[in-house]
Every structure is written in C-alpha cells, then in structure tokens.
Amino acid sequence: MIKLRKLSFKNKLILLILLVTFFSMFAGLLLNILTSIHNLKSDMIRETRLYADFLGESFISPLLFNDKSGGKEILSKITTIPWVDGVEIYNSNGTLFTEYKKSKFVIPVEVKMSVNLTRFIDNRLYVSKQIDYMQERVGRIIVVASTSELKKKINHQILSMITIILLVLFISYYLSLRFQKIISVPILSLAEVMKSLSKTGDYSIRVDKKSDDEIGILYDGFNEMLAQIQKKQKENEEANKKIVIGRKHLAEAQRIASLGSWEWDVENRTMVFSDEMFRLLELESDSLPTLNVLLKGMYKRDRQRFLDALKKAKSRGKSFRIKTVRKSANGKKYLLLRGEVIKSENSNIIIHGTAQDVTEQTEAEIQIRKLNQELEKRVETRTAELKAVNEELEQFAYVVSHDLKAPLRGVSQLSQWLLEDYHDKLDHEGREHIELMKERIYRMYNLIDGILEYSRVGRLRERKQEVDLNI
C-alpha cells in the first residue's frame, strides 16, 4: 500500500487500466474454462458409458455360455483403445468372469459394490453398469477410463487462457501508455505548476486550459484559487506592513507608559524580568530576578493578596489584576500587576505578567476623590442657601401678591359702584372707560396670581395623566 502511494499518477493510471483489464479477462476466461471442463467431463462420461453399453452387449454371449476364452478374446481388442485403463466383467452371481488392466491398480470397493455408478476417483473415471439380456440380468461390467487426455485438454485451455491474458495485458499496457497522456499530462502539468509555486511563491502564474471536461473545470478552479491567493497575499503584505508599524508604535507606547513584563516558571521556580521591570522595581539590571525580589517592598496586605492570586492562577488557571503599593525612594509607588497562566510545551505552568507604574493616576484619583468630597459639601451648603432664598422669595411673593391684590379689590369695587350708582348719569363713553378699567384690573389680578404660582414651581409635584390622542 505504501509503495502504491509513492507511484506517480501516470503509473497509477496505467496500473488501474491493467488491473481492470486483467480481472475482466480473467473472469471471462475462467468462466469459459470452467464451462469447457464441465463439457469435457460430460463428453468423457457419455463416451465411456456408451462404450460400456457396447462392450456389455459384446459379453452377453460369453456370459450366457460361460465362454471365458471368448471373453478374453474380446478384451484383447481393448488394448488398442488408449484411454481405457481397465475392464472387469462379473457374471450374474457377482463372480469375476474376466478382467483387463493396463497397469496395476485397485478398483475402489464402492465401485465394485455399486450396480450402476459413474464417478471420478483418483484421476480415473469409473463406470459400473448392469448387463441385461431379455430383461434379465446376466452380469455386470466396470469400465475404468484414464483422465490423462482430459487433463491435457484442461491444461491446454489454461495455457491458452494465460497466453491470451498476457497478450491482452501487453496490448493494454501499450495502448494505456500512449493514451494515458490524455488524462495524465494535464494533471502532471498542474502538479509541476504547484511545485513551481511552492518554490517561487509567485502566485501570478496561471495554467492554460486545454479542454472543457472535468480537467478543464479543475484548471478553472485552480486559476481562481491562485487569483484568490494572490489577492490575499497582497492584503497580507499590507497587513504585515501595518503590523510592523503598529509594533513600533506599541513598543514606544510601552516605554512611555512605563510598562514592564515578568515571567514565572512555577515548576522550576525561576523568574524573568524585562529591563523596564528592573527600573520599576528600582533594581540593578544585573540583579537576580526572583519571586521574593518582586514581593520585597510590597505592603504586607498587598503581598498576601498577590500570593493568593498566584495560588488561584496555578490551581484554576485564572488570570488576575491587582494594584499594589510599594515603598519607594520617593515615598509610595503604585504598581498595577497583571498575570495570565500559560502551559508550556512540556506542560509546565508558566505565568506571564506585566507591571505598570500607576502612581500618578492613583494619586490623581485620590486627589479627585478629595475634591469630589469638598464639592459635595459645597453643593450641600449652596443647596441649603438656595432653599432658604427660595423660601424667602416664596414668602415675599405671597406678601407682595396679597398687598397688591388689596388695592385692586378696592378699585374694582369702586368701579362697580360707579356703574351701579351713576349708570344713568354717565354717557356711553364714560361707561366704556369704566369697563376698560375693570378689564385692566382683572388682567392685573391674573398677573399677580401668575407670579404667585410661578414662585411655587419646583416645589409642587407633577401629576402625570394619560391622554387619548385619537380623540
């Protein structure tokens, strides 16, 4: 099977054609030989039985008259028949009357005991038949025929079959060697192009389509695939350029952001620091990085939190993010430590982590919290003051509106009296002036009520109510 895998497509195609041809020819010729063998055996049985009938009729007279010399004379003529190996004649009592054997051999007991039998046994055909005369049994004959001639014919048939198969295989090989190029050459050409592509990486190459069959479809698909790969290659080149630029920017950003990295091999208990990590920990670059060095300088509470996070990361594979406080030459330093568990190729647990100096951000957050607290206090104070002012304004608006309404009510009452008491004495223009005055008084009254309502806005709760807009 492995050798067959290593065969070229051309040789596989030729081998497939030869195998199909061989099995087709072999099956057909084998069926033909089996049929011929069956026919040859049937012919031999028929001839032997006919000869036994003929010979049995010849022995009727010697058996009736017990003429053994006559029987031997008949048997003497059998020597001229090459395929007869022996004959035995028995009388009606089952006693051997006479016999002829070309060579020494023993007739099987089952043949001797059978009255009517035809069977191939040990390369011989045995035919046992009863000899009858006037519908009475006068004896029995056993004819033994050699199968050597039958074997020769069978061997000749087999040899002919082998010769025909070899001849057909040779012709098939010659024809397949010439005509397989129709299929193999396009495939092999495609394989050569693929080899060239793997060496050069030039995906601008295209294969020339020479047919519209399945191979032509394969060529079209291959060219389309090359076009897609070429397009993806260009996109990847552009993306790689962007990645290179992005990495440069990232490296610069990490330097600006004071971001260090560390790595801890849990099994071997070894640690690796980046250059920026040494600077963040205020260590010399030739110092030995260890877990204790990383823990040194941490406040006790943060040290325990960091160790607990490492323990969970080892047992559960969880990543962590912890802000720690360290003692520094300038006071306090806040470091944001991150870690993630990664298993190496030999299944060792390795924790990759980063450390970022967030002192400025943390101090700014603390300052912002203080400012927020002060701002909240100021807002509370201002709110209380505003509340008091609003209350005073409400009281003032109430008093003003009340004081303003009193004269208006008097003027309104006075105008009503004038209309009632001097209605007949006032002309039309006078009455209109009084009505106009009453209207102005009413408008002034509503204006004062509006000011009073406005002063209450913000202290009254709004009542929400659904309104049907389909009306």
Task: Please sum up the structure shown.
It contains 13 helices and 10 strands.
**Fourth CATH level, the homologous superfamily of the largest domain:** PAS domain
Count of individual beta strands = 10
Counted by DSSP, the helix tally is: 13
Provide the helix percentage: 55-70%
- Spatial gap, N to C terminus: 88 Å
* The CATH C-level class name of the largest domain: Alpha Beta
- Using the CA coordinates, give the radius of gyration: 62 Å
Could you tell me the strand content as a percent range? 15-25%
CATH architecture of the largest domain: 2-Layer Sandwich
- Mean pLDDT level: 81
* Uncertain parts: none
Helix and strand element order: HHHHEEHEEEHHHEEHHHEEEHH
Q: Describe the largest sheet.
A: 5 strands, antiparallel
Q: Which class do the helix and strand fractions yield?
A: alpha+beta
CATH topology title of the largest domain: Beta-Lactamase
Label the overall shape: elongated
Number of spatially distinct domains: 4
Strand order of the largest sheet: 2-1-5-4-3
Structure description:
This protein is an alpha+beta fold and 471 residues long. It is 62% helix and 17% strand. It folds into 4 domains: 166 residues, PAS domain (Beta-Lactamase); 55 residues; 99 residues, Beta-Lactamase; 76 residues. Strand 4 and strand 5 form a beta hairpin. It is elongated, with a radius of gyration of 62 Å. The model has no long low-confidence stretch (mean pLDDT 81).
